[in-house]
Write a structure and sequence with these properties.
single chain; 439 residues; alpha/beta; 5-stranded mixed barrel; binds S-adenosyl-L-homocysteine; binds iron/sulfur cluster; binds FE3-S4 cluster
């Protein structure tokens, strides 16, 4: 048997947390001889790191799991494993639906991955474990194999206690658990030492971080002091927990970027109440005002759900008005997806598919108009861009992001990936800016 030359193909779905966790799993598996490949044919182990936040995500993943059956026919020694949120949710049922899957490992069990793979290599016995959903994650201090070279994700907490009535995440990720500040700081020092310029702290709700008494703003301030770090970001913030202290730390920060992703989900009090979001439209607007007063060049992005049960033409038009009032830089818009086991799945007055799609179109059209207007206002200005790489379609064009997290394309000269450059914005589109380097 080949010992030190095995190939791992990871397919990652879902949020940034999954991206971060795939990097950590690659780090674990490296210890038992697996190195990453992009190529299905070359793989000895195919790992699906999955998401179940919406039915569309699930369908896509099941489709892809079905597709890898053919690689198993070509190479019967191939191991197929499924981990992450969908694995946690479906467990045994996943094996029933896709019998060619060799192991299913829930979110709390991620630290056991090495043992599970080693066991399977020797016993070839199918294995499912979705117990211990709120378990401690024992691999969190394993050095991840990071995908990029400039920007790195660092999880600071796992799980969620908020139980928004539409959301499956607390069910598949368990209760909130925070990493110790010393471990986070040491990982970031190491990562910055390895040449990374930008760190994004991750958690389902970073504002309720509790690292043995250390709050999120305190942690953020400490990380901001790390030498060599050039940009510091975080996500996601729940509006109910975004404190004055955080705004203060951001306003006085050195490298903390002027961007907050602040999911509002909806713009009507009645729906927000039934979503269990625990804030009102007025409270959210007051928070936005406070943030903008303290950090005038802040960019705000959000998540929105259309078609939540009980949505009417009135609540929907309130949401449109709300969007016009806040004027987000960008919004991720989702169609409500019924998740079995969540309260909203059993709420009366579910909205029909056609209405959901129609409303989504209207919502996106309005937000796109606002996003474009906000970007057009930047034409003529010079922005600081962290160079992230060459554009996929044209090697002469580089791409990067502003501190406000806006994507910028520009013709490159002598600068390198990882450099901070100044770009004069010449053109604006809904999703990106185009410009030229200024010296
Ligand atoms: N913890 C983060 C993100 C969680 S999931 C937060 O609270 O903001 C990312 C987004 O998916 C959510 O913000 C929400 O807009 C969306 N989402 C969650 N459950 C959904 C569902 N059942 N249907 C449609 N969108 C959903
Ligand atoms: Fe889901 Fe709400 Fe938790 Fe976000 S805060 S993960 S939307 S339950
Ligand atoms: Fe999906 Fe799990 Fe993230 S359900 S959005 S991968 S926390």
């Amino acid at each position: 048997m080949r010992v030190m030359d095995k190939k791992l193909k990871i397919l990652t779905y879902g949020c940034q947390m999954n991206v971060a966790e795939s990097e950590r799993m690659a780090g674990q598996l490296q210890k038992i001889g697996y190195s990453l490949t992009e190529n299905f044919d070359a793989a000895d182990l195919i790992l699906f790191n999955t998401c179940c936040v919406r039915a569309t995500a699930e369908d896509k993943i099941y489709g892809k799991i079905g597709e890898v059956k053919k690689y198993k026919r070509q190479n019967p020694a191939l191991i197929v494993g499924v981990v992450g949120c969908l694995a946690q949710k479906d467990g045994e049922n996943l094996i029933k639906r896709a019998p060619h899957v060799d192991f299913v490992l829930g979110t709390g069990q991620r630290g056991e991955l090495i043992n599970v793979v080693k066991n399977f290599e020797s016993t070839r016995r199918q294995f499912v474990d979705t117990s211990n959903v709120s378990g401690l994650i024992s691999d969190e201090n394993i050095l991840p194999v990071r995908a990029g070279e400039v920007s790195a994700f660092v999880p600071i907490m796992y799980g969620c206690d908020n139980f928004c009535t539409y959301c499956i995440v607390p069910h598949v990720r368990g209760r909130e658990r925070s990493r110790q500040p010393a471990e986070i700081i040491s990982e970031i020092r190491e990562t910055v030492g390895a040449g990374f310029k930008e760190i994004t702290l991750l958690g389902q709700n970073v504002n309720s971080y509790d690292g043995g008494g250390k709050t999120f703003p305190e942690l953020l301030r400490d990380v901001d002091e790390i030498p060599g770090l050039e940009r510091l970001r975080f996500m996601t913030s729940h509006p109910k927990d975004l404190s004055d202290e955080l705004i203060e730390v951001m306003a006085g920060g050195k490298n903390i970027c002027e961007h907050i992703h602040l999911p509002v989900q909806y713009g009507s009090d009645e729906i927000l109440r039934r979503m269990n979001r625990v804030y009102t439209v007025e409270k959210y607007l007051a928070l936005v005002e406070k943030i903008r007063a303290a950090i005038p060049n802040i960019s705000l992005t959000t998540d929105l759900i259309v078609g939540f049960p009980g949505e009417t033409d009135e609540t929907f038009s309130e949401t449109l008005k709300f969007l016009e009032r806040v004027r987000f830089d960008m919004a991720f818009t989702f169609i409500y997806s019924k998740r079995t086991g969540t309260p909203a799945a059993d709420f009366p007055n579910q909205v029909d598919e056609e209405t959901k799609h129609r409303r989504l179109e209207i919502l996106m059209e309005l937000q796109n108009k606002i996003s474009l207007e906000k970007n057009l206002a930047l034409v003529g200005q010079t922005v600081e861009v962290l160079v992230e790489g060459a554009s996929k379609t044209d090697g002469n064009i580089f791409s990067g992001r502003t501190r406000q997290n806006k994507l910028v394309l520009f013709e490159h000269g002598a600068e390198k990936i990882g450099d901070l450059v100044r770009v004069k914005v010449e053109q604006a589109q809904t999703w990106l800016l185009k410009g030229k380097i200024v010296s």
